[in-house]
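Annotated sample (chain length 391).
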Amino acid sequence: MVLADLGADVVKIEPAPGGDNTRRLSGPAVGFFSTFNRNKRSLCIDVKQPSGLALVRRLIADADVLIENFRPGAMDKLGLGHSAMLELNPRLVYCSCKGFLPGPYEHRTALDEVVQMMGGLAYMTGPPGQPLRAGSSVNDIMGGLFASVAILAALRERETTGRGGLVQSGLFETNMVLVAQHMARAAIEGRDPPSMAEKTQTRTWPIYDVFNTADPGAQVFVGVVTETQWRGFCEAFDLADLLIDPTLATQTQRAEGRPRFLPRVAEIFRSLPKTELMARCEALGLPFAPIAKPADLFDDPHLLASGGLLPIELAGSEGAPGGKPSNAVAGLPALPVSLPSGRPGLWRQPPRAGEHGMDIALDAGMNEEEIATLIADGILSVPPPITAPAE
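Output written by the structure step:
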């Protein structure tokens, strides 16, 4: 998705006849396909059949990049391993997204949850004794992002060497980047750090908490993290006595003294409507955030004004509880970057399974008769044409 958003012609190769299994996920994963498959073309083909494999090899022979995330050895069994493909196309950047980079674990089956559990992230997220996965598929997403970075670096290197090569991204290793700061703390302090959910977790800042407001159920996170912010905060919220307290003179003293003044702060915030509290924090330049749910973000004024939401057609929603029609559209996040040309946008909706199969086969040099034979033999799957609704 990242490469497609940045302008690459990305062909998603899916198994015939049903296509990628993420099209049919449910529950927390029902939005996967719609979220990550914009700006791609779909080729739905049976690569276990010689003629289907031949078409894929034609595409690879002329490609800049191949990305795969099969279990170890699967691509070799298909005849599409990196050694064979680099012999076919020496300029190819062959990217393998794996559970583990080469080492003792490389043949294990990995999931985002597996590496969160074994990599310390679940321990840092959940309460003591209750490891909990993060509230997003953070390693799946960041593993793809790191793969994109590696691909771009390899393409840049190819400009000098004229050759591609193998790059890899590991799910477990991605998780370790996320946990690295906690590993460093463990090394510095000589003990395991408490989880972020532990109530006795030592805070670095005097105020770095979620507070209730006067509006029922409405909460706001507020942070006070600099000397200037502390002074302005105390003056604005009638806490000037804290400024002259010699036992609260430094950041470290204030962090240690939190139990003494946090109840007063919480009481003040409970007396204020949510909008007033946020307005006062914004005027002071304090870090603050309303506690939002995913559905709240469709109407976020900043995302709407900044081009941060793209109108994506939803797949799989008709099978979800309360699901919208399959042609429904929702604003889903764009890449979180701005380029000299602006924000990367939407130029192709997530494809139907095999939607671009005929065009891709023609691009690969096949004629219409050859394509018709693949379709008739069930090797190449293409969706029926979309018919206009009756008047």
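Annotation: Residues 130 and 261 are 30 Å apart (CA to CA).
Annotation: The first strand starts at residue 10 and ends at 15.
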